[in-house]
Amino acid sequence: MKDDEGLKNIGEMDFHDIKVKIYYDKHAGYSCNAIWRMRNPSSCYTGIVYHNPLTNKITYPEGAVIPVQTDRDKEMLPMAVLVNTEQLDDEMMKTIMFYLDTSYMKRNGCKI
Predict the structure, then answer these.
(1) Quick check: 39 pLDDT over 90?
(2) What is the distance between the alpha carbons of residues 60 and 78, in angstroms, rounded to a whole number?
């Protein structure tokens, strides 16, 4: 991410078993937002999917190879956090960690 896009790398933090970069976003409206993705996006099916809106059923073309995904592959993790301040004091780090923890539980189907 480039500084000319209004983003500035101001740090990183540990979250579960990964490092999450923290960026200052001069256009951020909330104290923090995150960019999320699957742990292993290469394990996703990428091809044609047929959806029947009447039955809400999904089917695949004949011969489609559907990859096997583990729960770890499907785990949603933050790639980066966008914050509206350049100062990463203890209070802001607590806010970011609370946001990541609660968002992680929601995205991964955990009970809060």
Answers:
(1) yes
(2) 30
Q: How far apart are CA 33 and CA 1, in angstroms?
A: 15
pTM, two decimal places = 0.75
What strand order describes the sheet that includes 76-83?
Answer: 7-15, 18-25, 76-83, 32-38
Q: How far apart are CA 56 and CA 66, in angstroms?
A: 19
Burial class (CB within 10 angstroms; exposed 0-12, middle 13-18, buried 19+) of 15: middle
Q: Which of 7, 20, 27 is nearest to 100 (CA)?
A: 20
Extents of the domains making up the chain: 3-39+72-107
According to the model, what pLDDT value does residue 5 have? 66
- Residue ranges of E strands in the chain: 7-15, 18-25, 32-38, 50-52, 57-59, 76-83
Dihedral (CA of 43, 40, 25, 84) sign: positive
Q: What is the mean pLDDT of residues 57-75?
A: 91
Distance of CA 102 to the CA centre of its chain: 12
